[in-house]
Amino acid sequence: MASTDFSRVAEVEAVIICVPTPLNKNREPDISYIIETGKAIAPFIGKYEGRSMKDEGGKQNPEGTMPKLVVLESTTYPGTTDEDLRAVLEAGSGLKAGVDFHLAFSPEREDPGNPQSVVKSIPKVIGGFTPACLERTKELYGKAIQTLVPVSSCRAAEATKLLENIFRSVNIALVNELKLVYGAMGIDVWEVINAAKTKPFGFMPFYPGPGLGGHCIPIDPFYLTWKAREYGQITRFIELAGEVNTAMPLYVINRTAEALNSHRKAVNGSRVLVIGLAYKPNVDDDRESPSYHLLDLLKERGATAAYYVRMSR
Ligand SMILES: NC(=O)c1ccc[n+]([C@@H]2O[C@H](COP(=O)([O-])OP(=O)(O)OC[C@H]3O[C@@H](n4cnc5c(N)ncnc54)[C@H](O)[C@@H]3O)[C@@H](O)[C@H]2O)c1
Predict the structure, then answer these.
(1) What is the pLDDT of residue 52?
(2) Which residue from 133, 177, 236, 274 puts its CA 20 to 30 A from 152's CA?
């Protein structure tokens, strides 16, 4: 049953945290949702008032009871689970991770807008704070997920998710750049990608677009950039991909201006319709969507810009 009462954490054996991980106004990781959630559940992670303890009315850390499991699923930088979240859970409970409660990280993997994607058949990466934490996490997810992919630590699991999303960001930037280069050469990048993807090995198609959108790909890579600085490391690919991808809305506007110009028209005074606001087809998620940049850029240039979205039932 859904509840906003955190004291009910005492009634469960496992807690999964999957709260937002945005960037703040300086484009630095904002893990405050994780920290606040950690603080809210900490007083209850040593308490057991669930079915197994019902007769005893709930006790603090009772002997013989399996320690509670806390799993973080939010996408974040390596170290969030075993440093930041662990610190607030231990401080707020007076307990020790790996001893009095179990702690793990397992990234959420979803394919929004794909009706063929079923959660139970998406392999789930899991990393525990200790080997015992990992075993508990396997038991939990093994009930619902067909294939589990255990890794050696929470950090390895956090880094796995970032690799997946950085891989997308960098490859999208590559095809965005190729769109510009091939476009200047009079070559259709879509034709090229469709031909290249017939290669049965060593190639995976990515497609150009007006920029990156959604809660993950435009944001997550910069979680690593920020953390890498602590280790004196520079994430050049991430920065470059960010640069290429964020320049795409302007490229689209310039192409629009050229198209209008070829009809002896200016952007200023034109009426332009932007079709679709979400960051990809068949989803209702408009977070970070480049469509908003397009609308702003059109308005800045004097166009009357409107948008069209198909409302889902
Ligand atoms: N949406 C996706 O497809 C997707 C895929 C993979 C990973 N992720 C990651 O999962 C995490 C959550 O993303 P999302 O898109 O589900 O976010 P969301 O904005 O939909 O929020 C998730 C839930 O957190 C709740 N929440 C917000 N603030 C809270 C707080 N302070 N305390 C308790 N609950 C709170 C919200 O009510 C909501 O139910 C992010 O780290 C994201 O990067 C999302």
Answers:
(1) 47
(2) 236
Q: Are 29 and 226 in contact (CB under 8 A)?
A: yes
Atom of ligand 1 nearest to the CA of 220: 43
Is residue 250 located within the same domain as residue 291? yes
Residues 6+ apart with CB under 8 A from 86: 97, 103, 129
* Residue 22 Cβ < 6 Å to ligand 1: no
The pTM (predicted TM-score) of the whole model is 0.92
Output the CA 252–ligand 1 centroid distance in Å. Answer: 31
pLDDT in tens, 24-72: 999 999 999 999 999 999 999 998 775 444 344 444 445 556 799 999 9
Same-domain status, 140 and 266:
no
Residue 224 CB contacts under 8 Å (≥ 6 apart), including other chains: 77, 78, 159, 162, 166, 235, 238
DSSP-based three-state secondary structure for 111: coil
Of all protein residues, whose CA lies closest to atom 24 belonging to ligand 1?
19
CA 114 and chain centroid, separation: 16
Within a domain: 112: yes
Dihedral sign, Cα of residue 194, residue 200, residue 201, residue 204:
positive
CA of 21 from ligand 1 middle (Å) equals: 7
* Dist. CA 309 → ligand 1 center (Å): 24
Reading across the β-sheet that carries 124-128, which strands appear in turn? Answer: 14-17, 68-72, 101-105, 124-128, 148-151
Q: Which of ligand 1's atoms lies nearest the C-alpha of 40?
A: 32
- Residue 199: other Cβ atoms inside 10 A: 10
Domain total in the chain: 2
DSSP designation for 155: H
